[in-house]
Amino acid sequence: MSTRPLTPKEILKEILRTKSGLIGVIILVLMVVLSIFAVIYTPYDIVNAWNDPVFWQSNPRLAAPEWINIIAGINLPKTIILGHNNFYKSEYYVQIAGLKYVNLRGTFKFQYDYFPSELSLFLKVNYSNKSPLVKVTFVRPDGNMVTLYEGIVESHNSVIYISTDPKIRKRIRTFLEKFTKGEEAYMIYPEIILFAKPDRDMWDADKARVLKGTYELRIEMVGYNPTDTLEAKLIVYGRVYGLVGTDDLRRDLLVGIAWGAPITLAFGLIAAVLISVIQVLLGIISAWFGGIIDEAIQRLSDILLVLPFLPIVILISFIYGVDIWRLLLIVVVLSIVGSTTKVARSIALQVKSEQYVEAAISYGASGWRIIFLYIFPRLLPYTIANIVMVTPSMIFLEAALALIGLIDPRNPTWGRIIADAYDGGAAVHGYWWWILIPASLIILVASAFAMIGYSLDKIVNPRLRER
Amino acid sequence: MKIAIIKRAITLVMTLIIATYITVVVANLGGLIDEIIKGQIWEDLVTRLARSPEFSMLTPEEQDRILKQRFEAAIKARGLDQPFIVRTFIYLKDALTLNLGRALFMTSSAGSRSVRAIILERLPQTLLLFTTGTITSCFLGLILGLWIARSPGTLKDKFISMFAIVTQTLPAWFIGIIFILLFAYYLRLTPFGGMVSVPPPSDPFNYALDVLRHLALPLFTWTFTYFGYWAYLTRNMVIQISEEDYILTAKAKGLPESLIIRRHVLRPALPPIITQMAIAIIFSLQGAIITEQVFNWPGLGRILLTAIMTYDAPVVIGVVVIFAYLLVITVFILDILYAILDPRIKIGG
């Protein structure tokens, strides 16, 4: 080791000189850019939106990323939204009868190879005293018609869940019986039967084929007041969505991942910096002062080695219900000394006996001055290498606690998303995007840190130079 | 040297005592558990007495008096009348003498409340997965590390080093989730989790086969995650020593390569590696909370998690204390072995 300590600038230069360090830095810079982009371009109250199911209601549930169509050469449906502007509207009031008629007709083309995942109709009904009668008819390209709903609409904002409503299923079962010729269907999937070619297999999710063409939705309302009116929105939920897909609560995972990047990185980095700097400083203090202080710090690190770290973190978080910033505090307190202290202590012992330190002692520099200005800079490369190695483990610690449901669930972090994916059975049901995309990002960041650490390894242990 | 060993033993015992005491206090939530138990005893008493017709005929003052009396008696019977600080030392003594007592809420699947039974019941499963996995990854890593250390800087060295550096930052549970998706969902090679099928096969041979089938994926995951670390550690250690001057001297003397490696490289390189491996094996006895959760594996980690979630302090203390004992004893034995094997090392220094 040279006598002169490396400055942070020189350390960075050293990192960039190696190929692995360069790649690591590039990845991290990209992540920081992504974080800044996320903070600037996502709406301010994204944390609230993330936890608000209504915010995501027009997204499909558990949709794969859109690019899967290109890669796998298939044609899975995207979501089709028929907003109230897409409906042709005619309304008239019959004075004698005192009845108001509103008719809506909306058409959409369905040219995909696979069935939609869900159908929902949102009705916004405006009436003054008596609730109106509404009839919803679904017209297929082959001319067959199905009445989905017929009845009084009480609520001003009502949602007709075509895919799950038991009454609608019953109507569709009746419709199906025209084609199955007595064969009994086990399960009625409205989103399949409505879009299937008319044959005896149209109820069977595996055998049914899509009937391509133009579909039409007719909504007729009879109200009792001239001002009564109706607006409708039909959502034909697809099976692919956006760049990253959606989770079981229809949330756009891209938003979660982009927004999770700064939180995840900040948590990992802050925890790692605090832990590393404190541990290194305690190691130096231990070496410098010796005696009782040295003994106390060393025994403390023995004790913390024996105490199981994760169970104690879990115990404390379970009792106090932590958010990630309080978790940070717990983690720092529990790792106040550790293996880094021991290594730092032994390096500091060597440095302590070097001439420039002895010179400083001889002209009367104070102990703290020597620790901070003379010894700590010499351990800076080691500290940075340590920060780089600890950061990923902190990111994973947060994820691990999310997995057992111990972290305030409101903030989307990458770990949280993977934990949600695990809880939502993504591994068991093969929702690969929900796991693999955030996981690859974590692996990417972890390897970036690891590669920087690897390039620093050569500064910290110069004897390991590549030959 | 005798004095040094005794000194080391004393510091280790002190460490054990303090660590156990911290565990006792933390696991009892600083006395909160006692309040919970007291509340429970009171509730029990009230509901039990309210059911008795004779009790309801008494005057309110009489009722109150009897309730208080019974409560005091119950508290005294469980030793809860002493202040928490005093009791922590009783718990400490019990823990250190491995008198683990009874769980507050949990039972073993055989129905026993004894903490020892609960822990012993899960120990074989933990050994089967984590200790086997740790040993496998140690050996694999050791062999690979020695192999790549012979030709540092080559493609295979760079590849394995990079692999090791990346995997040592990834936890096993994380890789486990990805492997479940890959091997269990897409390739259908292994079950998704658990230790046996439901219902378990009746004859012992098929049962063992079934357990092996369930063991395969978590064991593979555990080994995959950690062998890189050992390989990299071994490689670095061996390369570092190969650059020492005395190796150069040995080479200059014309000693055969294999002899140099055996006598001059491995002899100093192996002890620190073996030490770390021994400690890793002890750590594996704890199980792994999150990995067990992901693979639904019934090991000690799950017990610990359940105990934490149900405030079952005796179980938490029991698991931690057993582990602490094993660790401290291992460290002590290793220290002594070191002192015997390597005269340069002084114990306690």
Short précis:
With 467 residues, chain A is α+β, with helices and mostly antiparallel strands. In chain A, 51% of the residues lie in helices and 15% in strands.
Describe the structure.
The complex is a heterodimer of chains A (467) and B (349). In chain A, 51% of the residues lie in helices and 15% in strands. Chain A starts with 7 loop residues before the first helix and ends in a 7-residue tail after the last helix. The longest helix of chain A is centred in the middle third of the chain and has 37 residues, at 253-289. Chain A has a five-stranded antiparallel beta sheet with strand order 2-3-8-5-6. In chain A, strands 1-9-4-7 form a four-stranded antiparallel beta sheet, with no helix packed on it. With 467 residues, chain A is of the alpha+beta class. Chain B is mainly α and 349 residues long. Helix content of chain B is 76%, strand content 0%. Chain B has 14 helices and no strands. The interface between A and B is large, with 50 and 53 residues.
Outline the fold blueprint:
The complex is a heterodimer of chains A (467) and B (349).
Chain A: H1 8-17, H2 19-41, H3 46-50, H4 68-72, E1 80-82, E2 87-94, E3 99-110, E4 118-126, E5 133-139, E6 145-152, E7 157-161, H5 166-180, H6 190-193, E8 213-223, E9 229-237, H7 253-289, H8 291-306, H9 309-320, H10 324-334, H11 339-352, H12 355-362, H13 367-375, H14 380-403, H15 414-423, H16 426-429, H17 432-460
Antiparallel strand pairs in A: 1-9, 2-3, 3-8, 4-7, 4-9, 5-6, 5-8
Helix pairs in contact in A: 1-2, 1-17, 2-7, 2-17, 7-8, 7-10, 7-11, 7-13, 7-14, 9-10, 12-13, 14-15, 14-17, 15-17
Chain B: H1 2-27, H2 32-51, H3 53-57, H4 60-77, H5 84-96, H6 115-149, H7 155-167, H8 172-186, H9 204-242, H10 245-252, H11 257-284, H12 289-295, H13 300-309, H14 313-341
